[in-house]
């Protein structure tokens, strides 16, 4: 059995009366790709921040492997325009980095040509790859990717997911990524965890999409995953269910008994 | 006379050389108003220094660091918007300082010199302070350059990679407080921030890397000191404001003359 990198044990976070996370159980193993999905405001980011140690759990605990090394790729990169910074200098900021690794890492991600570019002029897809490079330079055994394909077109998304899968295969690291769109991630994911403050359901993508709690949040998948790759036929369903979710408390109680 | 000018020049150059790189951080982290708040409180430090009969520089440093800590604590509590909080603290501290100074009847204190600086009043002891403080600041900046920059670029990434972000943030505040303490004699509490941010902002136009910008800010600050001092000598203008005017002119030149810069 592969090494367990992180285990959430009944983790809860609440401030005053507001419950952000409630009794979350989740495990990430070496070599496993876990995708975290959930509607807006469901606590995905809070969960990631708890894992990273940026936020402290008010209940339960996060058990980390002794040798856990996280490579973190934030949702976006805001660098003040008054700070002149090339990609090379940005990557050299990784703690204890071996500078000779910077170019090979960029080459692996297909962006070696950006090495002297200013970080302010990168496109969405380029920024994501530079951030991924920074995460990799930290020599992680767990990659944490917060919406890694944000602002990237569909072709670019497929490429990025392939890249991430390739990295997993090469390093045998665990991967935790956040997504609010399952269709593209599906084929690359071992485990899906669907949260809405609490864990609604988790398991293989096939299991989760068939689960009533998932369907209450995201709708019934109209087709099998290989066809669902052509994602955006479902866009309207998404919107619809955003509405259903906010108006209908029934869907909440529906997933409560998991 | 020559002695006087030489001391003024040495003091001014020392301060400008240090204020530049630190100013770059102030600009990058959008701490300009924060720096102003600390600077304004320095006058209170002077008053306390006289009242308690301790070294003025030390009093200023202690007060600035103390205020910085109060500021960070209040900021975390989200009682009120940060800019409002800074405005309240800056002007209360300045007013409190002015009130406190008025209690010092037995000591004659040149208020204008503390508010706007008096480069020509620099003595040997001041020079020692400027240079020992300056060397301390530059050394700390060089040693902790990478963590400071990593935190400035992205605090969360830095924290995840294991940088002690809280400690570094504290260090940066300490450095700002130090620079304020040594720079007060030169440009006064009301103008200190300008000596940090104007050269740094000017340097932005001319640099492609953080190191370039920080060192360029030093050079530009030194030019401003030379120009200001010369103008002050030539036309008998107040030195502190002259230095700031000179820095502002350099800024205007940098941003109006079309230098080529890779964006």
TrEMBL record, chain A:
Region (Disordered) location: 239-258
Chain ranges of the ABC transporter domain: 6-221
SMART domains the record matches: AAA
Gene: znuC
Stored PROSITE patterns: ABC_TRANSPORTER_2 (PS50893)
PANTHER family on file: METAL TRANSPORT SYSTEM ATP-BINDING PROTEIN TM_0124-RELATED, ZINC IMPORT ATP-BINDING PROTEIN ZNUC
Gene3D superfamilies per the UniProt record, alphabetical: P-loop containing nucleotide triphosphate hydrolases
One of the protein's GO biological processes: response to zinc ion
Coiled coil: none
Keywords (A to Z) from UniProt: ATP-binding, Cell inner membrane, Cell membrane, Ion transport, Membrane, Nucleotide-binding, Translocase, Transport, Zinc, Zinc transport
Molecular function, one GO term: ATP binding
InterPro entries associated with the record: AAA+_ATPase (IPR003593), ABC_transporter-like_ATP-bd (IPR003439), Metal_Ion_Import_ABC (IPR050153), P-loop_NTPase (IPR027417)
Protein name according to UniProt: Zinc ABC transporter ATP-binding protein ZnuC
SUPFAM superfamilies documented for this protein: P-loop containing nucleoside triphosphate hydrolases (SSF52540)
Protein species of origin: Marinomonas transparens
Database matches in Pfam families: ABC_tran (PF00005)
Highest rank taxon of the organism: Bacteria
UniProtKB/TrEMBL annotation, chain B:
GO biological process: response to zinc ion; transmembrane transport; zinc ion transport
Pfam families cross-referenced by the UniProt entry: ABC-3 (PF00950)
CDD domains per record: TM_ABC_iron-siderophores_like (cd06550)
Domain of life according to the entry: Bacteria
Gene Ontology CC annotations of this record: ATP-binding cassette (ABC) transporter complex
Subcellular location: Cell inner membrane; Cell membrane
Topological relation to the membrane, as annotated: Multi-pass membrane protein
Residue stretches spanning the membrane: 6-28, 40-73, 85-107, 128-148, 168-201, 213-233, 239-257
Nucleotide-binding recorded as keyword: no
Keywords associated with the record: Cell inner membrane, Cell membrane, Ion transport, Membrane, Transmembrane, Transmembrane helix, Transport, Zinc, Zinc transport
NCBIfam families xref list: PRK09543.1
Family: Belongs to the ABC-3 integral membrane protein family.
Purpose of the protein: Involved in the high-affinity zinc uptake transport system.
Name used for this protein in its record: High-affinity zinc uptake system membrane protein ZnuB
Species this protein is from: Marinomonas transparens
């Amino acid at each position: 059995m592969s090494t367990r990198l992180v285990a959430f044990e009944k983790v809860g976070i609440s401030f005053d009366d507001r419950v952000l996370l409630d009794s979350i159980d989740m495990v990430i193993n070496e070599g496993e790709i876990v995708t975290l999905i959930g509607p807006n405001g469901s606590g995905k980011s809070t969960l990631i921040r708890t894992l990273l140690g940026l936020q402290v759990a008010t209940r339960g605990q996060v058990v980390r492997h002794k040798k856990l090394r996280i490579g973190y790729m934030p949702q976006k990169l805001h660098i003040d325009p008054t700070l002149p910074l090339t990609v090379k200098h940005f990557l050299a900021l990784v703690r204890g980095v071996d500078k000779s690794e910077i170019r090979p890492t960029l080459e692996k991600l297909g962006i070696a040509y950006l090495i002297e570019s200013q970080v302010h002029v990168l496109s969405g897809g380029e920024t994501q790859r530079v951030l991924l490079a920074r995460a990799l330079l930290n020599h992680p055994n767990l990659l944490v990717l917060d919406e890694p394909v944000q602002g990237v077109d569909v072709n670019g998304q497929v490429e990025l997911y392939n890249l991430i899968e390739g990295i997993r295969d090469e390093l045998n690291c665990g991967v935790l990524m956040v997504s609010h769109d399952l269709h593209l991630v599906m084929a690359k994911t071992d485990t899906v965890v669907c949260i809405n403050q609490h864990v609604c359901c988790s398991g293989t993508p096939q299991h989760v999409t068939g689960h009533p709690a998932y369907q209450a949040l995201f709708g019934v998948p109209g087709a099998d995953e290989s066809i669902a790759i052509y994602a955006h036929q479902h866009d309207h369903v998404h919107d619809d269910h955003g509405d259903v979710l906010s108006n209908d408390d029934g869907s909440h109680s529906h997933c409560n008994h998991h | 006379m020559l002695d006087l000018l030489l001391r003024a020049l040495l003091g001014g150059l020392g301060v400008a050389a240090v204020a530049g790189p630190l100013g770059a951080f102030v600009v990058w982290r959008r701490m300009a108003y924060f720096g102003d708040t600390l600077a304004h409180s320095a006058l209170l430090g002077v008053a306390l220094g006289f009242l308690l009969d301790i070294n003025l520089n030390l009093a200023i440093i202690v007060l600035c660091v103390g205020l910085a800590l109060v500021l960070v604590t209040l900021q975390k509590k989200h009682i009120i918007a940060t800019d409002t909080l800074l405005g309240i603290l800056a002007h209360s501290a300045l007013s409190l300082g002015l009130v406190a100074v008025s209690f010092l009847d037995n000591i004659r204190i040149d208020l204008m010199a503390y508010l706007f600086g008096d480069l020509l009043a620099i003595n040997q002891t001041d020079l020692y302070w400027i240079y020992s403080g300056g060397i301390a600041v530059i050394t700390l900046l060089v040693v902790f350059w990478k963590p400071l920059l990593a935190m400035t670029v992205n605090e969360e990434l830095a924290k995840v990679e294991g940088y002690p972000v809280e400690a570094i943030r504290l260090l940066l505040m300490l450095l700002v407080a130090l620079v304020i303490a040594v720079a007060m004699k030169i440009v006064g509490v009301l103008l200190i921030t300008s000596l940090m941010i104007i050269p740094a902002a000017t340097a932005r136009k001319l640099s492609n890397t953080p190191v370039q910008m920080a060192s360029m800010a030093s050079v530009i600050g030194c030019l401003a000191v030379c120009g200001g001092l010369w103008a002050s000598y030539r036309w008998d203008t107040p030195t502190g404001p002259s230095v700031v005017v000179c820095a502002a002119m350099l800024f205007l030149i940098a941003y109006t003359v079309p230098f080529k810069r890779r964006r």
